[in-house]
Write a structure and sequence with these properties.
Blueprint: H1 9-21, H2 38-58, E1 63-66, H3 71-81, E2 86-89, H4 96-104, E3 111-114, E4 117-118, E5 121-124, E6 126-129, E7 132-133, H5 135-144, H6 146-150, H7 161-170, E8 173-175, H8 194-199, H9 204-226, H10 233-236, H11 246-255, E9 259-266, E10 280-288, E11 291-294, H12 302-325, H13 328-336, H14 344-355, H15 361-366
Parallel strand pairs: 1-2
Antiparallel strand pairs: 3-6, 4-5, 5-8, 6-7, 9-10, 10-11
Helix pairs in contact: 1-14, 2-3, 12-13, 13-14
């Protein structure tokens, strides 16, 4: 299981400070103003490769479970480069479905759903409650209760005005990190300036500040417990299921407790129609001792599919091509796809300044 971050949050934030000086904002800048920024992905991809190569040398029949970002680029890259490896990616963003269920007054145990897409870009296309179509309930909530709720909801709320508006536009609901702060705040049109963000109750900078502070607190707590021989780890981290899918997947694979889990796997069976077969998708899969078998979905609405290909597939493929070739020219072209790039000079200047940071000597040498 790989949950490691090789480059560290300080390196991520240093790059963001450079990018913001050059005019980049949160809101669809998925390879710059996101925790999957190109200068973080470089170190992550190298780490992923090293782990897979060790695994194939030492225990080639083992499963590699990736929790660390970038899941989208990581699973796509590893499946292409190491087709003999057994790999799967997991993400907890789909849990946003249960937030919707709670707001609609639906018992979690009585809902079923379909949320196809690629990692950090999944959409609720089907929702059933006790066997009945519940998508009309969602539309009714947006029309009748939404306007009052939006006056008081928190920034970046799962059922806030931004996600509700995307639902009205597309007929599918963006789930979890999709269009959320943790997914690069996709949807640049809701983030053009601070006033527009405030109108849609979006404030990505605040989210990331809380994220980093929470992480620092958690690390300090882990260090405190690890240095206290009298502390009981199980009191701080009780041995109960958390809602994450990691342990259920391990149990299904090892002791054959079959279950359906949302997994990140290559689209070899066209599980999401229209996504390239050698690209990662996030779909329901049957997990058991037989392995991980993707389940066919009906895909996405046309507008969502187009956005997925433009904003997820195209730039990820270009990033992987730049990484594979060590090409700064292709890295520049990746930045030219960013919604906040206004000129070639801007992209060159931002890229050069990030690569010039002292911590990036290894990456500078790679992209030569």
């Amino acid at each position: 299981m790989n949950a490691a971050l090789a480059a560290g949050h300080q390196r991520l934030r240093a790059g963001w400070e450079v990018a913001q000086r050059h005019g980049y904002r949160w809101g669809g800048s998925l390879h710059v103003m996101h925790d999957e920024a190109f200068w973080i992905n470089f170190y992550q991809l190298r780490l992923f490769e090293s782990v897979i190569e060790d695994m194939l040398a030492i225990c080639p029949q083992a499963w590699y479970i990736q929790i660390a970002n970038p899941v989208k680029a990581g699973i796509t890259h590893l499946a292409r480069r190491y087709p003999e490896a057994k790999i799967v990616g997991l993400c907890h963003g789909f849990g946003g479905v249960y937030y919707l269920a709670d707001k609609l007054g639906l018992e979690r145990e009585q809902i079923t759903y379909e949320v196809p897409g690629v990692n950090h870009f999944i959409w609720l296309t089907k929702l059933f409650y006790k066997g009945e179509d519940a998508m009309p309930l969602l539309a009714r909530w947006v029309a009748e209760q939404g306007p009052t709720y939006w006056q008081h909801c928190g920034y970046g709320d799962e059922m806030g005005p931004k996600k509700s508006d995307l639902f009205r536009r597309y007929g599918a609901w963006p789930i979890g990190d999709t269009a959320g702060d943790g997914g690069g705040s996709w949807g640049w049109e809701y983030h053009c300036d601070d006033d527009i963000e405030a109108r849609w109750r979006e404030r990505p900078g605040d989210f990331w500040q809380r994220f980093f502070q929470g992480g620092e607190h958690e690390v300090a707590e882990i260090q405190r417990i690890s240095h206290d021989s009298s502390a009981r780890v199980s009191e701080r981290f009780p041995p109960v299921l958390s809602g994450e899918t990691i342990i259920p997947v391990v149990e299904a694979l090892l002791v054959d407790v079959p279950r359906v889990v949302l997994c990140n796997i290559p689209n070899t069976g066209s599980y999401v129609p229209g996504v390239p077969q050698d690209f990662q998708v996030e779909v329901p899969a049957l997990v058991s001792r037989r392995g991980i078998q993707g389940i066919q979905t009906d895909g996405l609405p046309a507008a969502v599919q187009s956005a997925l290909l433009r904003d997820c597939v195209a730039p990820t493929n270009l990033e992987l091509a730049a990484y594979g070739a060590g090409s700064r020219a292709l890295l520049f072209e990746l930045l030219m796809l960013d919604p906040w790039t206004r000129s070639a000079e801007q992209a060159h200047a931002m890229c050069d300044e990030i690569l010039a940071l002292d911590c990036h000597a290894e990456m500078r040498a790679h992209y030569c």
